[in-house]
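Below is a filled-in request sheet from our internal design queue. Each sheet records the structural input a requester submitted and the sequence that came back. We keep these sheets so that new team members can see what a complete request looks like end to end.

REQUESTER: design group, bay 2
PRIORITY: normal
MODE: inverse folding
CHAIN LENGTH: 221
BACKBONE (tokenized):
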């Protein structure tokens, strides 16, 4: 069912309300504060803003924010249980001033976030929708690539990691064909290890099971 942005946000906020009250790291997004003004939201001197889509339990996002106080991190996830888990990690901490999370998905990004906002966009282990008839649900497609191209600043970076071979090669193929991005790992299509990477819980789990991880890195051109 197609919803207007206003109805979508109302729906999301209706069961998230109590979480907004007692945690300052979560942002309640309503149409009144759109498009998001990250200068006001973070209200600090940081010049760099990174965006994680689908942060899951928030483990790596929180670690990134704590390790890099000079960088602002904005993370979204569309599932309430993920927000709840991430908040359970944040509730016994002081507010992390360079971190904001919000509950929403990628469907309305250009109506919510100004163009040229981010230095980096990160996607770790997005749902692979393994069955062929479900591939249309995968987040990364040509339209999504055009959206993130707009949201990134010049020379912005898109990072994508997945253990799923078919989704990884679909992404490689999409980025090979687009003129909007350049593959930083060229001539390789991906790396299986990235120095100084903070692994997500999902990633550790998949590695223990013996899966190869595909890390891709693309530059906005
Ligand atoms: C397999 S989990 C991986 C979580 C985390 N990135 C990790 O590596 O541990 C995928 C996450 O992406 C979220 N997600 C999937 N599609 C999304 C979308 N289009 N917008 C926002 N979040 C999304 C899901 O709710 C889920 O939390």
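RETURNED SEQUENCE:
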């Amino acid at each position: 069912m197609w919803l207007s942005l206003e109805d979508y946000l109302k729906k999301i906020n209706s069961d998230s309300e109590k979480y907004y009250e007692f945690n300052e790291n979560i942002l309640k997004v309503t149409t009144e504060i759109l498009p998001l003004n990250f200068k006001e939201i973070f209200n600090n001197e940081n010049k760099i803003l990174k965006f994680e889509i689908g942060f899951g339990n928030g483990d790596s996002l929180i670690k990134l924010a704590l390790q890099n106080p000079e960088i602002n991190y904005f993370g979204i996830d569309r599932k309430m249980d993920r927000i709840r888990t991430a908040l359970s990690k944040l509730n016994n901490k002081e507010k992390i001033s360079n971190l904001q999370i919000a509950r929403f998905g990628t469907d309305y990004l250009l109506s919510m976030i100004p163009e040229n906002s981010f230095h980096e966009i990160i996607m770790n282990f997005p749902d692979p929708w393994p069955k062929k008839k479900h591939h249309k649900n995968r987040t990364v497609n040509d339209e999504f690539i055009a959206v993130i191209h707009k949201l990134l600043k010049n020379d912005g970076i898109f990072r994508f990691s997945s253990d799923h071979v078919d989704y990884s090669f679909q992404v490689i193929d999409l980025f090979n064909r687009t003129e909007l991005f350049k593959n930083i790992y060229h001539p390789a299509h991906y790396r299986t290890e990235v120095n100084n990477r903070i692994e997500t819980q999902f990633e550790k789990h998949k590695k223990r099971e013996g899966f190869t991880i595909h890390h891709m890195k693309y530059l906005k051109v």
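SHEET NOTES:
- Residues 165-177 form the longest helix (13 residues).
- Residues 53-56, 76-79, 82, 105-106, 124-127, 139, 200-203 surround S-adenosylmethionine (CB under 6 Å).
FILED BY: M.R.
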